[in-house]
Structure formats: structure tokens, C-alpha cells
């Protein structure tokens, strides 16, 4: 078992012990980034919003560092067909939303959606909580190191169309970077990888991680891809 737990209560905890050196910049980002550096959409001051968590899982693939993503089912009423990090809302058994609840939720949701073995994951940091106005979620991005890879795939086709990994080298390749614009007026960074357009909340997290970790390469910010109302 490589998942780090507190021997006093068995709860999941964070640890940077034994991380590969290439993850050091990401761990540093988790320690130093300010909420406003990550997004302009921050949790409401009155505490409103549904608590959720996503797992930003880094692994070491055939082409070097990679990220785990999933594509939501086209049959879903919200975010249909959209690539995303595994994740979802906190359940009562996950624990305190202001303590280790998001850690437990990120691992549980990833296992339920992708079949990931959580015992092979070492959680090493969290990013500031962010707000998704369209859905009212307050989301904690949880950073993980896929120390012991396990088979993954779509557990429920009604919710997940596919599960895939993306090499960080492809995410930093200027040829795969673009800006999306939505009829609502939303504009944001996006990535053209693995036959998918990664945009929205997920792309925003990846974009800021690449930037503050020092991995970003110059890219053409005038290159644009349109989205439709169904996105």
C-alpha cells in the first residue's frame, strides 16, 4: 500500500516524501499559489456552494510525466462530453470539508469513475478552493502522484465515455494550445489532445499549473476554437 494515512485514525493525509524530482515544482505551487493566481472565480464569502473535489493525478508514462483525465458521457445533462479530472461532491463519510474531506472524496470519486486503485496514489498537495458559478460547486483540486499505476477505464458508461492519460509534453506543446470562446462570452485556455478539446475548469487548472511550475512554453494566444451552446 502506498496511500499515506494517519496511523491515529486511518484518514488520508498529504505527504511529499519520496516524490520524483520532476514533481517538485508542482508541490511548490501547492505551497505558494494564491487563490487569485489560480482563478477569478473564488468561493462565496458567505460559505454558499456545494463542496466538491477533483483528483489532479500525475503519473510517469511511456513518454514521461502525464495526467489522468476522463471524458464525461454525451448523455449527461450537464458538461456532456467534456474532458475533466475525476471528481465529484463530498459525501458525509468523506469527512470535514475544511480538513481532509476533499482528500477522501477525490480518491473515492476517482475510484468510482475510473476504477483507479486508491492505494496506489500518494496525495501530496491541494490547491485553493475554487468556485464554478454555473453549477454552484466549491471545488478543491487535490494533487496526487500515481506511484503504483493500476488499470483504469470507464466504470459506468452512462456517466463516463472514456478514461485516458495525456503526456505533459503534449500539454506544453504550443501546437496543442488554443483559446476557446463560448456564445455566452466565456473565453479561456484550452488543449487539443487525445482527440479532445480540454477546456473550462479543467483546462484552467492545467494552464495555471503549467505556468507556475515553470513548464509553460510560449504559444499563440490568438489561436481560437469556438464552442457551441451545448458545451
TrEMBL record:
Cofactors: Mn(2+); Mg(2+)
Superkingdom of this protein's organism: Bacteria
Q: What are the residue boundaries of the Nudix hydrolase domain, all occurrences included?
A: 49-222
Cite the entry's keywords alphabetically.
Hydrolase, Magnesium, Manganese, Metal-binding
Q: Where is this region: Disordered?
A: 80-101
Q: Which SUPFAM superfamilies match?
A: Nudix
Note the Pfam families from the entry. NUDIX
Query: Which ranges form a coiled coil?
Result: none
Signal peptide span: none
Keyword Repeat found: no
User: Which PANTHER family does the record associate with it?
Assistant: MITOCHONDRIAL COENZYME A DIPHOSPHATASE NUDT8 (PTHR12992:SF11), NUDIX HYDROLASE (PTHR12992)
Put simply, this protein is called CoA pyrophosphatase
